[in-house]
Amino acid sequence: MQGTMNVPGLASVDGKLEGQLTADVIAIQTNGSVDGKTIANHIKVAGSLTDTAVANKTLLVESTGVIAGSVTYTEMEIKKGGSIRGSIYKTGSNAPSMQSAPAPTPAPPPAAPEATEAPEAPIISDETP
Fold it and tell me: What is the pTM for the complete model shown?
């Protein structure tokens, strides 16, 4: 099948699809393959997905699943045997940020005083003239 499809619920792919697929849930079965932009809240890949995938909530790559291209996800699980090749981006996390505060910028070392001749110090001795 070729073209652009917008599915309001579950889109289950058990054959070959070329084009753009948008749905709430996309399930690419073991015999299924999608070549094109795929956008959904939940994507499950047991077959193959090529090009761009955007999983607004969850991405599940089954043990037989293969993704090649650009992947954007919020939560992801890859089962043993599953694979992703390409660019992977995580977005939309509701978890608190684990980044630490930026380290303070160290102050530059103080400038060395310009060399000046020290005034001659009086010579002090125990002997008095």
Answer: 0.71
| Distance from C-alpha of 21 to C-alpha of 28, rounded to nearest angstrom | 11
Please say whether the beta carbons of 11 and 27 come within 8 A: yes
DSSP 61-104: E-TT-EEEEEEEEEEEEE-TT-EEEEEEEE----SPP-PPPPPP
Q: Are strands 38-45 and 48-61 parallel, antiparallel or unpaired?
A: parallel
- Give the separation between CA 96 and CA 17, rounded to whole angstroms: 38
At residue 33, φ and ψ (nearest 5 deg) are: -145, 140
pLDDT digits (tens, 9 = 90+) for 93-125: 543 333 333 444 445 555 555 555 555 544 544
pLDDT in tens, 58-76: 999 999 999 999 999 999 9
What lies within 8 Å, CB to CB, of 16 at 6+ separation is 1, 32, 33, 35
Q: Which two tokens stand for residue 34?
A: 């999608």
